[in-house]
């Protein structure tokens, strides 16, 4: 990662000169000389530092908000700066061409992957209202109007400012400007304690319930009360002297209600103050949106699902030659040949980690036998030309394993995503869905955690590991025993596929015949020609590929097909989504908390959003897995939460939404119970109008 360039020169008592490289709101990279003034902490309780500056190439006054290197290593501090940047960019996109842009700080640029991440704003207008003891009646009306306008604009974006206070409301004598964007939360998310009493609502102070736009109404009312009276209000109810202040009592009486449900919305308050204002704001913002931006591609997604629902399904039952067809054999995860349990070929490791033969018939105690067998392995001799390898016994004793394969080019971050996916399982991520896990082999699992999970969690970039088997095509990574809510146990084996290296061989075809689920990983740097990804492409040495991922096409071409669609379960993942964390609609999904229940409607909504993004910017070639596979969901995920810097992740590797793709696959295979059943999970219920029989050209009926 290229850090921000600082070349400082300091005059006696004067500003420091530096060169800043940053991304503009339009996504372009800009390098500019800047002179920076002295630094202070914007809020004593927050880590961000702030200083005034002057961009010398345009003579533009600015404010830099940044984190020190030490604070940037704190994921919580980075999250605050990310929240502020995401809010500022969202407001810029919505308001830049409207009269309402001045209600908020105007972002000039940002670099959040630098060692010292920062934001640049245009110079603020006015001074903090906290500096005013008592405000005149004329100023009160103007500030009330602008503050309610700001709350309503944020509400239309699904955002709630949780940090409204006299310190974050600026006033220049004519208009207000609302800062404190690091304290913005999405409507409907769980509240977290934020802000200072009495300006934060009682529910927000306690962190109870879900974030509501009326939380900010309480805050605005408290700010206005202080500016009218010169003193703070009560932290839990309306001020006792409210009736003595006619304008406050007439406009904001209900805003002081202890419960959000009893307060007016920002729109209701705004219309009370200026009838029709909310509608005028909504029309102005809607007119500034690019035509069709929100619905672009939605019809294509729904039409694709409709065609999939109407297409005949392939015959059920195992594919000819599939591993474990009727004889109890399973596919060896290393040599990809069929293998069966052989009690005469078992081994265990001794205290020197060397394999020694095991004869289980000599173990009379059933509990001890079960424990020994769980740690035992079987030597596989199915392919005498393949290097020596051993299979954990539990892998061979619970029926046909569910095989999950990651597909994508070598630079897509598959290994990091798969590692974090398995780490999320071992952290208990499946428990809310009624699933339990157990290692197939404790020794192998401990090695996986030691060599893969722990280094990544400690912030190290994982090395590219050469594949095992088929000249690097299929690399077996890990296997777990998953027990569903009904007590059924099934091994789940994870593979990493370098599909671009796949050749048509009997072993390769046998492996693909036995595949149960595929995860196609889309690299946004390769797929999306968005300007703000240019810097990442330059750093990674890659270019946009309009023809899609070669690995996708190679694997899809090799999979057996019995109808218009492939019937293997699949998930497409827009990986490295931290590169797109401020890009709609990724910003909406990436910061969602981990799922604790599967909502098929919400899953399809995410699929629709990702489909729309890829179709609009990447092209249809990148959607080939979705077009070719009958049951396929689409997701956003980030294995690391940020970009690497010299082989490390500065704030550690913070995974986001890494388990959702696997949850979808498990639901499609019936391991997780979902409304409507596994058959309709990815496709949705068939609407009534689709099920009405229509006559075909020969006079018969078809559906």
UniProtKB/TrEMBL annotation:
Transmembrane segments: none annotated. InterPro entries: Kinase-like_dom_sf (IPR011009), P-loop_NTPase (IPR027417). Gene3D superfamilies: Transferase(Phosphotransferase) domain 1. Residues 1-21 are annotated as: Disordered. This is Protein kinase domain-containing protein. It comes from Streptomyces pactum.
